[in-house]
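Appendix B, example 12.
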Amino acid sequence: MKPGASFWKPCWKPLMVSCFFLIWALETPKAESRESARILIDGSLTVSTSNPAGSSISLSYISSALVSIANDTHFLRGVELIITAPQAYFAYRGSLAVAVYMNIGAVPLSGVTDIEADALLFEPLPNRIQTVYQLPIRSQHGLRTTPYATVPNLIIHPESFPILVRIMPIIKGISEALEKMTFTLTAKPILSNEGALALTFRYPEQLQNKPFILLIDDVLIENANELQFLREGEHQLIILSDDFRNENRKFFIERTKIMDLTIDLQDPTPLIFFEAPEKTLIYFDNEPVNAAKPLAAEPGKHEIKIQVNDYLIIRPITVQKGKTYKISLLVDLNISEE
């Protein structure tokens, strides 16, 4: 008896009946075919955004592997499966098929087990060294079938993982050479061209939880406490408020990274800073000013007096809410020659 023969024969008749439904599931997005099968699991792979190169496992002509995804799927568009066949397989093309199942429930990580799962994909193993499947896990994934990769019409939601990738015979009389061949399954993430912004706001004690308007790239943000998913590159953030100083700043988003940004919301009371030589007398609306500290002023029209010995300067100033002013007494020396 050939190796694997006793394992394969009980499954042969159900396989022939189920092939039609497996192909139908590939072509019809809303139709999932529930399948029962006994399979041999050789191991498992985990797809993570932190490992863009992915990981691999070796499979035989009757074995399978589980493919899981890490918990953080924020920047994951899909999962790419690459099946690499040995050069010698070309002489036996049409002998094997690849099947992918989802919603398989709890199964062991290795060994022979019975499964009941939704059939996602079935096709004869193509006559090429590498066969690529790109499985989308979210809407608006942007993946398309090309001559180099097949994209099924179904979206495999994260809760449908782990999926099971299976290599199986589709002809009778498997040769000893084919039984000894080793195939490689590689699973890797398909990353989005996005990063995210996590905002934290610190309020002045006297202005806790006052409202403000947040714009990112001129788009109104309804919930500033949620992660903001943005394309890689430079962006602009604007805060508009009657209770805080307006903010306008730029920030840069890296692909697949979350940027933490803390914004200290500022009291909009106008501030006036003074710069003057020592022993200069400064008055604001006839009240003496300590030049070592910024002066908080009410919006409106005011008068500033600066006196150095007998030299007196009087200037009007109109103060606006949310603005900062700097007033400097400049001492200049002019030398001329005739």
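The two ends are 119 Å apart (CA to CA). DSSP finds two helices and 23 strands in the chain.
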